[in-house]
Amino acid sequence: MPHHTPLIATIVGGLVLAFIFGTLAHRLRMPPLVGYLIAGIAIGPFTPGFVGDADLAQELAEIGVILLMFGVGLHFSLKDLLSVKNIAIPGAVAQISIATLLGMGMAWALDWPMGEGFLFGLALSVASTVVLLTALQERRLVETKRGRIAVGWLIVEDIAMVLALVLIPALSGVLGGKGEALGTGALLTTLALTLGKVVAFVAVMLIVGRRVIPWILERIADTGSRELFRLAVLAIALGFALGSAYVFGVSFALGAFFAGMILSESELSHRAAEESLPLRDAFAVLFFVSVGMLFDPSILIRHPFLVLATLLIIVVGKSLAALFIVRAFGHPLSTALTISASLAQIGEFSFILATLGISLGLLSPTARDLILGCAILSILVNPLLFSLLDRLKPALEKRERALHPAVADSAPYTAEALHDHVVLVGYGRVGRHVGETLKAQGSQFVVIEDQVELVDSLRAAGINALYGNAVSAEVLQAANIAAARWLLVAIPGAFEAGQLIEHARASNPAIRVIARAHSEAEVEHLEKHGAAHAIMGEREIANGMLACVKSAAA
Ligand code: AMP
Question: What is the mean pLDDT of residues 32-37?
Answer without folding.
Answer: 88
